[in-house]
Automatic annotation (TrEMBL):
This is ADP-ribosyl cyclase/cyclic ADP-ribose hydrolase. Belongs to the SARM1 family. PANTHER family: ARMADILLO-TYPE FOLD-RELATED, TIR DOMAIN-CONTAINING PROTEIN. It comes from Chlamydomonas leiostraca. It catalyses: NAD(+) + H2O = ADP-D-ribose + nicotinamide + H(+). It comes from the Eukaryota. Residues 640-712 form the SAM domain. Its EC number is 3.2.2.6. The keyword Disulfide bond does not apply. ARM repeats lie at residues 220-275. InterPro entries: ARM-like, ARM-type_fold, Armadillo, SAM, SAM/pointed_sf, TIR_dom, Toll_tir_struct_dom_sf.
Length: 712
């Protein structure tokens, strides 16, 4: 059931809702300024202790923040915050440890944690300033880190609450080296409470700052986290950590992996480390709903693009739990003892809605209405929240039943239009356009450009065909190549062969520079025939499905071209292909030899009037151009694009490392450099293992041998 607050939003939504800005937190007293004041005071009086002045000024700023925020001042112990910060500073005075003060420092840490936790729970606008002021005190973060490494869970908890939605403090804590030290201690400790506290801090760091991910990854901690997820715990730590009583190490480790999974740069390493299987197991069997939701979102982020992956199929109870959590997050309420993040839940749902079975479950349990609530509201990282919610709605709109629900939900279509009109993000614009298009509201997208001159400038033929007679227009129709980005180089070979045979072609090369959907529509409308380049990733792509189904709606002749050996499309793509004759072009080397059959099937559709083979011409476009205006990439590996490098990995049976190579920005030039590194056998083996996560000797030897075949 939707909350009453949500229902009120649905019924009262306006095209341009006013936004009431939150009261901004007071600016923190900068440490540089504190140092300057201390220097000035100390220079005038030789008896003044500079470090004492620093501490007093820093703690005074914290105390001032507490007094200025009644909600924070109400926290137990808040009136003595200055005294507790002074205790920590004394414990770690001038960089040396005063062990006798450790019990007092632990007690002070507990109070500081309570005060900041209270600010989090009451959503105090002074939270961020309070966190920064505590971290920027004269002793800095070192006393808390020292207490943590001495085995005090409360210090880890205090560090975590200082991280909460504050990327700056996250980076300061990570830069102090605690992650690398935890990587050593975590697998060794037998204390369940301490282990949970460590994982809780790691969750906070990973959740609130992507910049900390490099510390976690480079510390070598991922295999430990995966191993902890496999542990079947009998005696979970009964410790309250962030309002999650009784949360064990397995659940905590899964939460860290989930937050790492939201960053696509980490996907290759996480998948290679076996994270998907252990998380899927938690998703299926764990009793705790929060743990199941975390695991489901992580699995969706890692393999959500794989529509047929059985690990992505949810049971209805989990769908209900996820949607209830998202509804609570939109209201800013806790659920299962946690404040959830809207954009991260939406990212998981956007991936899960690729699966047709999940589409049905989500739509049947008020998922569309709750996703609409995301669009109506303002959230942390609002742009991402809107983009992922729109992506989920786009996927859902591919089913007729969901389309009707989306259109009939009060204010929802207007919300999509409003975001399209106001967002500054090109990615969000394209997703909003896709959702509207799939809803059958193509005119909403087209009207953005009609009358402005932009449409004609973005389409093949340069918009010059409007005044042509029907006979001339027929002669300028093209063969459209509809494909998924990973097959681009093979599709370009097909395009070149068609050019030689005298056909006018249309192929999207660089995603239209922001006008993709409009350009696609006109390309379909002006095509004589559409070649659908079939692959697994084509079936999983929202944009490709939109393109193919629009061609079908326009009653265009569709010729399937199979780009992936032994792939048998099912679902919507299988239905689209039906009993159509298809041509296999899965081996790029065989494309020229297989073209005669395809050309025979094409006949004169899309062939330039009066042209002979090798004499084709056609109009160009911004990003989408005719065959004559595209220069084919060189066969030399040094000039390969990132996509060509990925295709090479697939050909040499190393497709599992595509993500790692993509993360390291490996194009042809970089691949050539890797080949030259192979002159030093030890160095190349170490590089392949550490940078590309090639664990076995066989994997490394295969790549080295293939590099020599490629470049020698």
């Amino acid at each position: 059931m939707l909350s009453s607050k949500t229902l009120r939003k649905l019924s009262s939504f306006k095209n341009s809702p006013s936004v009431v800005p939150l009261r901004s937190a007071p600016k923190p007293l900068k440490r540089q300024r504190i140092v300057a004041v201390a220097n000035n005071l100390a220079s005038g009086n030789g008896h003044v202790d500079k470090s004492l002045l620093l501490n007093n000024l820093a703690t005074r700023s914290v105390a001032a923040r507490v007094v200025a925020s009644p909600d924070i001042a109400a926290a137990p112990g808040a009136e003595d915050i200055e005294k507790h910060l002074s205790t920590l500073a004394s414990y770690w005075a001038d960089g040396s440890l005063n062990a006798s003060l450790e019990p007092n420092a632990v007690a002070s840490t507990r109070v500081i944690h309570q005060v900041v936790q209270h600010a989090v729970n009451t959503k105090s606008p002074g939270l961020r300033g309070l966190q920064t002021a505590v971290i920027s005190g004269s002793a800095g973060v070192q006393p808390l880190i020292t207490l943590a490494l001495h085995g005090h869970p409360t210090a880890y908890e205090a560090l975590q609450i200082l991280c909460y939605r504050n990327s700056v403090t996250c980076q300061q804590i990570a830069a102090a080296g605690i992650v690398e030290k935890m990587a050593i201690q975590l697998p060794r400790t037998k204390d369940a409470e301490l282990q949970c506290a460590m994982l809780f801090l790691l969750t906070g760091l990973a959740a609130f700052s992507d910049a900390t991910h490099e510390h976690i990854i480079s510390s070598g901690m991922v295999p430990t986290l995966v191993s902890l997820c496999r542990t079947d715990e009998q005696n979970e730590a009964k410790v309250e950590v962030g309002h999650r009583v009784g949360t064990g190490s397995q659940t905590r480790a899964a939460a860290v992996l989930r937050n790492l999974a939201h960053n696509t740069k980490n996907h290759g390493l996480l998948i290679n480390a076996g994270a998907v299987d252990v998380l899927a197991d938690i998703m299926r069997h764990e009793k705790d709903p929060a743990s199941r939701i975390n695991a489901a979102v992580a699995v969706a982020c890692l393999v959500g693009h794989e529509e047929g992956n059985p690990r992505l199929q949810l049971d209805e109870s989990l769908v209900v739990e996820m949607l209830q959590v998202l509804d609570a997050a939109c209201q800013g309420s806790m659920r299962h003892g946690i404040f959830w993040t809207v954009w991260k839940l939406c990212q998981g749902l956007a991936s899960l809605t690729v699966n047709d079975r999940n589409k049905e479950l989500i739509a049947a349990n008020s998922g569309i209405e709750i996703l609409g609530e995301v669009l109506f509201g303002k959230h942390h990282n609002n742009e991402a929240a809107h983009r992922f919610a729109l992506s989920a709605l786009w996927n859902l709109a591919f089913t007729e039943k969901s389309r009707k629900v989306i259109i009939s939900t009060p204010g929802l279509v207007e919300a999509i239009r409003n975001i399209l009109a106001t967002t500054e993000s090109s990615r969000t614009k394209e997703v909003a356009k896709g959702a509207l298009w799939t809803l059958g509201l193509e005119q909403d997208v087209k009207s953005l450009h009609e009358g402005t001159g932009r449409m004609g400038a973005s389409i093949v033929g340069g918009g010059d065909e409007d005044g042509l007679e029907d006979e001339e227009r027929e002669s300028t129709q093209h063969v459209m190549l509809s494909y998924e980005w990973g097959c681009q180089q093979s599709v370009m070979l097909i395009k070149t062969e068609l050019q030689k045979a005298g056909y006018r072609t249309w192929m999207d090369i660089d995603k239209m520079s922001g006008s993709t959907l409009e350009a696609m529509a006109r390309a379909v409308e002006e095509s004589a025939v559409v070649l659908v380049c079939v692959s697994k990733r084509y079936k999983e792509s929202q944009a490709c499905r939109t393109e193919a189904e629009y061609a079908f709606q326009q009653r265009k002749k569709i010729i399937p071209v199979l780009m992936e050996r032994d792939y048998k499309p099912s679902g919507w793509l299988g239905a689209l292909m039906g009993t159509r004759l298809y041509f296999s072009m899965s081996d790029p080397r065989q494309i020229p030899a297989k073209m005669p059959g395809l050309i025979k099937e094409l006949g004169d559709a899309g062939r330039l009037a009066g042209s002979s083979q090798g004499n084709a011409s056609g109009g160009g476009a911004l990003g989408a151009v005719s065959s004559l205006n595209i220069k084919l990439s060189s066969d030399r590996p040094e000039s390969w694009t990132h996509a060509e490098v990925e295709d090479w990995l697939k050909r040499i049976k190393c497709s599992e490392f595509v993500g790692s190579f993509r993360e390291k920005d490996m194009d042809g030039v970089a691949l050539s450099g890797l080949y030259r590194m192979s002159a030093d056998a030890k160095f190349i083996h170490e590089t392949l293992a550490s940078e590309f996560h090639m664990v076995t000797l066989g994997q490394r030897l295969r790549v080295i041998e293939e590099l020599h075949r490629l470049f020698s």
